[in-house]
């Protein structure tokens, strides 16, 4: 029994590669710019399940490349989901908090109305709907603020900047749950197995690290855990202009994921500890 994983170099894909029975395919074997080729690969491989961990994740760049982002994040997952539905196998797709507009203070439930603020979020929303429309056994797992020892992420950025500077200004009005790529990979793997046993669990779910915090709080915790001296000053998002607007409220209500799959929110302080150990940046 093989779980076919789209993605090889990405944060979550690298963690999936470490798990049992996974076969990760990179851009050379499956370019998401060609959705039909992704579908043909699934049909040829006939895996027991498919997890899509590949995506266009450059939030700001997507503003000027929305067509490309929409093929990769929208059309390709749709083609994968249809190929899985044809084979009668589960499809696990990863989505994002950036499908929400980010107003209010309440954690978003899976059924809450979406309203992406930028091109990346819109392209991911297209993917979600295409996966549902395929009509097969599926889970869409929305996560947020992904961090790991590999690739581009906020922890790596802070370690680099924190070593160079005595002080940083970090946005404090965006609130969400930092989530370890390792924990997301484990959740996707477990969900694929549970969907195979019980297709009735199909649906959209949330999974983010606990507790919710601001990027500024998270930066302070990174410096504290790494033993770096760098003062973090809270700023509003309006003082950190970016091409794409980010949601202010990225809190995800993960209770259905816990209830249906028995998977609870991972403690991000523990995630931070294992990431810094892997990087060799613990104090
Ligand atoms: N990063 C984050 O903070 C968040 C991510 N997510 C979602 O989680 C999932 C995993 O994200 P993450 O691991 O961080 O992603 P990364 O940005 O670390 O990696 C993206 C992966 O997608 C691959 N990819 C991009 N374009 C293509 C393409 N045209 N064909 C084939 N492969 C491609 C990349 O391959 P290559 O190296 O060849 O470019 C890489 O393996 C995604 O669905 C993302 O939207 C959700 C919330 C937060
Ligand atoms: C480097 C830096 C960033 N920031 C802010 C900008 C931003 O609001 C926040 C995080 O920066 P990032 O560039 O990591 O954010 P971003 O790339 O938008 O992260 C997002 O990626 C996509 C793929 C997702 O799906 C989301 O869940 C989310 O993780 O920190 C500062 O305030 N000061 C700084 O010095
Ligand atoms: Mg493996």
UniProtKB/TrEMBL annotation:
Residue stretches making up the RmlD-like substrate binding domain: 1-278
Keyword set includes Oxidoreductase: yes
A Pfam entry, by short name: RmlD_sub_bind
Gene3D superfamilies in UniProt: NAD(P)-binding Rossmann-like Domain, UDP-galactose 4-epimerase, domain 1
Keywords (A to Z) from UniProt: NADP, Oxidoreductase
SUPFAM superfamilies: NAD(P)-binding Rossmann-fold domains
Cofactor note: Binds 1 Mg(2+) ion per monomer.
Biological process, per Gene Ontology: dTDP-rhamnose biosynthetic process
Pathway info: Carbohydrate biosynthesis; dTDP-L-rhamnose biosynthesis
CDD domains in the record: dTDP_HR_like_SDR_e
UniProt catalytic activity: dTDP-beta-L-rhamnose + NADP(+) = dTDP-4-dehydro-beta-L-rhamnose + NADPH + H(+)
Domain of life of the organism encoding this protein: Bacteria
Family named by the database record: Belongs to the dTDP-4-dehydrorhamnose reductase family.
Role this protein plays: Catalyzes the reduction of dTDP-6-deoxy-L-lyxo-4-hexulose to yield dTDP-L-rhamnose.
Name of the protein: dTDP-4-dehydrorhamnose reductase
Lineage: Bacteria, Pseudomonadati, Pseudomonadota, Alphaproteobacteria, Rhodobacterales
